[in-house]
Amino acid sequence: MAWLRTRTFWAFSIAPAIPVFGLIAYIIVAQIVGDSQDLHLRRLVNQAAVISLFGLPIAYGIAMVFGLPAFIILRSLGILNFYVTLLAASAIGSLFTILSELRRVISVASGSGGTSFYGSYQCDIIVDGVRTACGYVYLFQDLLTSMLLGALAGLTFWVIYNGGKSVRQ
Which has the closest alpha carbon to 108: 129, 123, 134? Predict the structure, then answer.
């Protein structure tokens, strides 16, 4: 059971959950700060539960499928440092948006999801199979959010893995 005491184990155990909880915090703050007249605690708790239920397995799956191989490769090449960890984690975080966008495009292209998609920004994101300007703004914001949440996971990973040592060491 010596592997339970390694920093690598704890970094891979804790860091993937950070984007999920960051997303939950983002949604809660957005609803509190936003102009929502019907703010209900029960709905916020339900949203947090659903995001955790689906988000945590996805986050740990992405960490094991993409994060662990990236860690092994970067460490074996000797280039594992703070900045590379943040960059790799941001790239891995963006995979969530890319995969969900790919699912949406396939759904629209196959006709199973209709030819239009209406987003949470009260605008049409895809109309007749073509992305609108609002759809590109939505995609950019979604990609930026997932990259920042990935970077937050990378930062958490690095702090745990490196034991809180300085970035310059």
Answer: 129
Q: Which of 66, 69, 73, 74 is nearest to 90 (CA)?
A: 66
* Model pLDDT for residues 42-95, shown as the tens digit of each residue: 777 888 888 899 889 999 999 999 999 999 999 999 998 999 999 999 999 898
Contact 129, 115 (CB under 8 A): yes
Q: CA distances (Å), 83 to each of 16, 79, 154, 166, in order?
A: 18, 10, 9, 12
Spatial CA neighbour of 158 closest among 95, 98, 80, 104: 80
Query: What residues does 117 pair with on adjacent strands?
Result: 126
Q: Which residue has the tokens 């969900």?
A: 100
* This prediction's pTM: 0.79
Beta bridge partners of 163: none
